[in-house]
Amino acid sequence: MATPAVVLLSGGLDSTTAAAIAIAEGFEPRALTVRYGQVHEVELEAAKAVVAALGIREHKILDVDLAGFGGSSLTGHGEIPKDRPLDTIGAPGDVPSTYVPARNTVLCALALSYCEAIGARDIFIGVNVLDATGYPDCRPEFIGAFERLARLATRTRDIRMHAPLIALTKAQIIRRGLELGVSYAITHSCYDPTDGAACGRCDPCLLRKKGFAEAGVPDPTRYA
Q1: How far, in whole angstroms, is CA 165 from its chain's centroid?
Q2: Please, what sign has the CA dihedral across residues 63, 67, 69, 72?
Q3: Who's near 42: CB < 8 A, 6+ residues apart?
């Protein structure tokens, strides 16, 4: 019997790949998606499609209103940045307005609760730092610190955090996912979609385009 693991699943390219890696490593993923007030709620439908495609048997969708605090263009407070030069995305000190204050801390805490409730010990998250926006809660230091907190805060005391993409570029992530049979056509990364089509201009869209180009494979994304 496969070992259960909680996978934080947004429906994006990275979290989908992390879920596929969890399956490849012998885990039985339980997907957790959070509706936290993000303006790009189309990603929730993408998460459902990914769950179906990967054969994940349990999918929890929780509501947590981070938009009520403000502080991020991703929750409707300000404009989504567009057309930024690629060499500035993720540069040292670059924390764009789409950073949601403490989002990954909140999401990991929810995953931890889910994990302990079902008797699991493993949590997968699709963060990466080499080819992503400069969010402070996507760093290895954060993952390590949260794992230490999880072991202090739970009765199981041996929670393991898995961030299999953390040191990979987007191209490397895409190649790994394709090796595992991931269909990226059903994933969604855009922060400002129109009628389900990606804008092609926000940071995730630019990084996604770059990743497919560097991986040398066609980009299946439908852009506006």
Answers
A1: 10
A2: positive
A3: 188, 190, 193, 196
Q: Which fold has domain 3-215?
A: Rossmann fold (3.40.50)
When pLDDT is cut at 50, 70 and 90, the band that residue 214 belongs to is very high
* Element holding 160 (H helix, E strand): strand 160-162
Q: Across the chain, what does the average pLDDT equal?
A: 95
Contact 214, 172 (CB under 8 A): no
pLDDT tens digits, one per residue of 10-46:
999 999 999 999 999 999 999 999 999 999 889 999 9
Six-digit token pair at 220?
Answer: 């299946």
Pair 22, 7: CB distance under 8 Å = yes
Measured CA to CA, the distance from residue 219 to residue 171 in angstroms comes to 11
Please check whether residue 2 is in contact with residue 28, taking contact to mean a CB–CB distance below 8 angstroms.
Answer: yes
Q: How far apart are CA 119 and CA 27, in angstroms?
A: 13
| Structural tokens at position 117 | 């409730």
Backbone torsions φ then ψ of 84, nearest 5 degrees: -75, 145
How far apart (Å, rounded) are the C-alpha atoms in residues 8 and 32? 5
Residue 35 neighbours by CB under 8 Å, 6+ apart: 41, 44, 61, 62, 63, 64
